[in-house]
Amino acid sequence: MYEFLQVGKIVNTHGINGEVKVMPLTNDPERYETLDWVYLERDNVREKLTIEGVKYFKNFVIVKFKEVKDMNEAGKLKNLFLLVDREHAVKLREDEFFICDLIESNIFDENGKKLGVL
Fold first, then answer.
1. Which of 31, 60, 80, 95 is 20 to 30 A from 23, alpha carbon to alpha carbon?
2. Measured between alpha carbons, how far is 50 from 64 in angstroms, rounded to an integer?
3. Domain count, the chain
4. Residue span of the structural domain in which 113 resides
């Protein structure tokens, strides 16, 4: 089980003020409005960034981090994933799962016959 969950991927910068364009990896992009911070992981080092603002552009989320001052700093974040710890993840119903938790699971049909591994 993963300790952190991916909620988005930074695909580009947006404007000159340090905003980033994020491809959401969540079924509810408006969820970003409830986040105060996210983690970014680079070279096996996790960094916590404060979300200062969120807006939407087409199918993307535009995020402004307090710690990122300009387009040059934002450009260094390209291709990094936004992460949340499980404590701050969306609460799931009893019959719901995060995709990452299903990876490498055994799959059975309704008769109990193993079909394979996801």
1. 95
2. 9
3. 1
4. 4-117
| Distance from C-alpha of 90 to C-alpha of 84, rounded to nearest angstrom | 10
CA distance 62 to 10: 9
pLDDT digits (tens, 9 = 90+) for 26-51: 877 888 898 999 999 998 899 999 99
pTM for this model (two decimals): 0.79
Is residue 102 helix, strand or coil? Answer: helix
| Strands (E) located in the chain | 4-14, 19-24, 37-42, 45-57, 60-65, 81-85, 106-108, 114-117
Report the pLDDT averaged over residues 77-82: 97
CATH code: domain of residue 55: 2.40.30.60
Among 80, 75, 60, CA closest to 17: 75
Centroid of chain to Cα 84: 7
Please report the sign of the dihedral spanned by the C-alpha atoms of residue 25, residue 32, residue 28, residue 105. Answer: positive
